[in-house]
Design goal:
Order of helices and strands: HEEEEEHEEHEHEEHHHH
Distance between the termini: 33 Å
CATH class of the largest domain: Alpha Beta
Bound molecules: flavin-adenine dinucleotide
Strand content: 15-25%
Strand order of the largest sheet: 6-7-10-9-8
Helix content: 25-40%
């Protein structure tokens, strides 16, 4: 693939809804799509005025505007590399497109700004330097947000899968269907699986719930290995575990496959 996929997908909409509900239950005043018209220091904190006229007092004001690859001032021009707004374009051996003798790894590649991306790409580069042809494969790349409950995802969202031309099937399990969530008294989470009808395999998964960064691993392995859904339904998971959320969703997908 010339120029690996630039951006991993945004998460499924239910993630924001579940997190907003969890934050609200903790007493957080969540305002979505609100524009701050002005901010000023006040009483050791800050005072905000929103465009709709609302006024808010805050102990701290954090401006969280995302991240972008930092490629300025590191001498890339001396190597003939011209990064774009999304970073340095690399091919699937992490060679810089147009400068095949230079490799790049990590946030500067703009592919997925995570520590595990940087170390994975480092391993791909080490293999290339040893003369082994290892191709970077981002299909089953995990993404996690360590909130409470945790959010984790892998592969394609349903929207991205449709955009990519897949015949998409979707199945969802609420964690309230697992004995574990009920035993822990926290049934808020959900697991959504995205499948490719033609291939009969998973293409993506999004999970919200305690330890979701761990139990998303089953979907990750299934996507990476292209394991058939009809085989995944045979897997036995420990009782009581959050991983049991896979069972109803996989059975539903298998039924839809026919
Ligand atoms: C607040 C925060 C929380 C995060 N939490 C997570 C998380 O939970 N999980 C996760 O996977 N990722 C997380 N990330 C993202 C993760 O930190 C980055 O994706 C990862 O560090 C990228 O690795 P990197 O090697 O590309 O860059 P970096 O880790 O930034 O390393 C770049 C290095 O290059 C050095 N450097 C810069 N310029 C020069 C120069 N001219 N000469 C020599 N050296 C130079 C820098 O000092 C730095 O040491 C988080 C990021 C932030 C900001």
């Amino acid at each position: 693939m010339e120029g690996a996929e630039r951006r991993l997908p945004a998460e499924e909409p239910f993630v924001g809804e579940l997190l907003a509900a969890a934050l609200s239950a903790d007493g957080v005043d969540v305002r979505v799509a609100a524009t701050v018209a002005s901010a000023e220091p006040a009483d050791g904190g800050g005072r905000l005025r929103l465009e709709d006229g609302a006024r808010l007092a805050a102990e701290r004001v954090l401006v969280v505007v995302g991240r972008r690859p930092q490629t300025d001032g590191i001498g890339l021009d001396s190597c003939g590399i011209e990064p774009g707004p999304e970073g340095i374009r690399v091919d699937d051996t992490c060679r810089v497109v147009g400068q095949q003798h230079v490799f790049a790894a990590g946030d500067v590649t703009g592919i997925a700004p995570f520590t595990h991306t940087a170390s994975y790409q480092g391993r791909v580069i080490a293999a290339a330097l040893q003369g082994r042809a290892v191709r970077a494969d981002y299909r089953a790349f995990p993404r996690a947000v360590f909130t409470e409950p945790t959010v984790a995802a892998v592969g394609l969202t349903a929207a991205r899968a449709r955009e990519a031309g897949h015949r998409v099937l979707v199945a969802v399990t609420g964690l309230d269907r697992t004995a574990r969530a009920l035993a822990e008294g926290d049934p808020r989470g959900r697991l959504l699986l995205v499948a490719d009808r033609s291939a009969g395999v998973l293409g993506g998964a999004t999970a919200v719930g305690p330890g979701a960064d761990g139990w998303i691993g089953e979907a990750q392995l299934a996507i990476q290995m292209a394991l058939p859904i009809t085989r995944l339904t045979e897997v036995v998971r420990p009782f009581p575990s959050f991983a049991e959320a896979y069972e109803p969703a996989l059975r539903e997908l298998a039924a839809q496959l026919g």
